[in-house]
């Protein structure tokens, strides 16, 4: 149960701060983050870095969107990461007819899982 509510801007700020902290711990150069920055390819974060990032953000927000809202494998960009945490606090974060990158990534991830299952 969430005991605190974060608005959209605060959520984005906290996620960006956490990403910057992980980058700093690895000696990666500080930079202004953009929604389309890929966590791995653009920012150089490893899967272990992402695990640390999710842990830090769970402590910050008091919840983990990857337990039930969003599969972690569908998050590849800073914008998708912010979107996952926004969903914890705001069901209306995006208009109903707006493109939903997380939903698209989720569907793509499910299709990949189904294809892998069919091959085995």
UniProtKB/TrEMBL annotation:
Region (Disordered): 99-120
Superkingdom of source: Bacteria
Domain Carrier: 9-89
Database matches in PROSITE patterns: CARRIER (PS50075), PHOSPHOPANTETHEINE (PS00012)
Keyword terms of this UniProt record: Phosphopantetheine, Phosphoprotein
Protein name: Acyl carrier protein
Species, as recorded: Paraburkholderia tuberum
């Amino acid at each position: 149960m969430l005991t605190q509510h974060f608005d959209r801007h605060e959520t984005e700020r906290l996620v960006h701060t956490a990403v910057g902290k992980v980058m700093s711990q690895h000696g990666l150069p500080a930079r202004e983050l953009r929604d389309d920055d890929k966590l791995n390819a653009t920012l150089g974060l490893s899967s272990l870095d992402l695990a640390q990032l999710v842990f830090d953000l769970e402590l910050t927000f008091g919840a983990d969107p990857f337990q039930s809202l969003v599969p972690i494998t569908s998050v590849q960009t800073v914008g998708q990461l912010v979107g996952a945490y926004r969903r914890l606090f705001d069901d209306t974060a995006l208009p109903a007819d707006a493109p939903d990158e997380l939903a698209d990534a989720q569907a793509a991830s499910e299709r990949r899982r189904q294809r892998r299952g069919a091959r085995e």
